[in-house]
Every structure is written in structure tokens, then in C-alpha cells.
Design a protein that fits this description.
The chain is elongated and about 60 Å long. Helices cover 72% and strands 7% of the residues. It is mainly alpha-helical and 178 residues long.
């Protein structure tokens, strides 16, 4: 039955060890955001101009809701959407040497590799969002609040470099000679 296959595919998602680790990371990140937000003032310096000067503020509760939405929803939706999209038998997947890697005898393993890569990238994004939140908490300790721009740019560079290296490894995985 077609419905049974689709339901079984979704059920397997929650049995996947990588997904369980990812959900644990999301729970840890949400706990970190809530716990560290307690250190923020009632009005949070939440947006910063070049150089780290404050150019936007918001109430702590609004900031907390926004950060929780970003930290929980963004990476989780990325994982869920990719999982659902890849579960479709007619999913359009663009890979180097796609006909080879998506041949029936390799398709399941290829889908698994793509899903694992999405879990890793979503976890990387989760870590970067928590890092950015930590910088906002630190910035709000100062009077006046000031974001340490070097730390932000360094974290952003590390995030982007890791994403690029991961993408290169992902694409290299799908060379025909591997």
C-alpha cells in the first residue's frame, strides 16, 4: 500500500540515531537560550551596526521568543522538509553523477548520505545561532551594550568555512570513482 510505505518512512525518521542526536542538540540549545536569556536586561540590545554599536532594541520576552523560534524552528524545519522531500519516490535530486548514485540499487544509501549531511548542516546552524545569542548576551553586559564585532565575524567565518568544507566533502562523496 502506498500510504503504508510513506508512514513507515516517517516512522523510521524517529528511529534514526542521527535524528535523535539532532533533537537532543535542539533541546540543549533551547535550554541554553532560555537559561542565558535570564541574564539579559528588560530591554535587550538585539541589533548591532558595523563596529558593534547598538541600533535596535526589543523587550527581553520578545527577544527570547524570537531566538527560540530561530534556534528550534529553523534547523528542525530544514531537517523535516528534507526528510519529507527525500521520502517521495519521485523526488527530484540533483547530484553529481545523479543517474549512477540514484540507481535503484544505490538510491537508499544515497538518500541516507543526503539526510546525514542535512542533519550535520542543521546542527552546525544550530551551534552558530547559539553562538550569536551568546554574543548578544555578552554585548548586553556592557554599559552601553556593544557587540564584539571581531568575535562575531570570526564565528561567522568559522561557520561559513565549515559549511564550505562540508559541501566540498559532500560533493566529493558523489564522484563516480568513489
Amino acid at each position: 500500500m502506498p500510504g503504508t510505505t510513506r508512514a513507515a518512512g516517517r516512522g523510521r525518521m524517529w528511529n534514526d540515531r542521527g535524528v535523535r542526536w539532532f533533537l537532543l542538540a535542539v533541546a540543549f540549545a533551547a535550554t541554553f537560550v532560555v537559561a542565558s536569556a535570564a541574564q539579559l536586561p528588560d530591554m535587550v540590545a538585539s541589533h548591532f551596526a558595523a563596529g558593534g554599536a547598538v541600533n535596535g532594541m526589543m523587550p527581553r520576552n520578545s527577544y527570547l521568543v524570537l531566538m527560540l523560534l530561530l534556534v528550534i524552528a529553523l534547523p528542525t524545519v530544514m531537517v523535516l522538509l528534507s526528510w519529507v522531500a527525500l521520502s517521495r519516490p519521485n523526488a527530484r535530486i540533483n547530484l553529481p553523477n545523479g543517474p549512477y548514485w540514484l540507481a535503484p540499487e544505490r538510491r537508499a544509501q544515497t538518500i541516507g548520505v543526503i539526510r546525514s549531511a542535512m542533519l550535520r548542516f542543521s546542527t552546525l546552524l544550530l551551534v552558530f545561532l547559539c553562538y550569536a545569542h551568546w554574543l548578544v548576551v555578552r554585548a548586553n553586559r556592557g554599559v552601553p551594550p556593544h557587540l564584539e564585532e571581531g568575535w562575531f565575524l570570526g564565528g561567522l567565518a568559522a561557520f561559513l568555512a565549515t559549511a564550505v568544507i562540508g559541501t566540498m566533502g559532500f560533493l566529493r562523496r558523489f564522484r563516480r570513482d568513489s
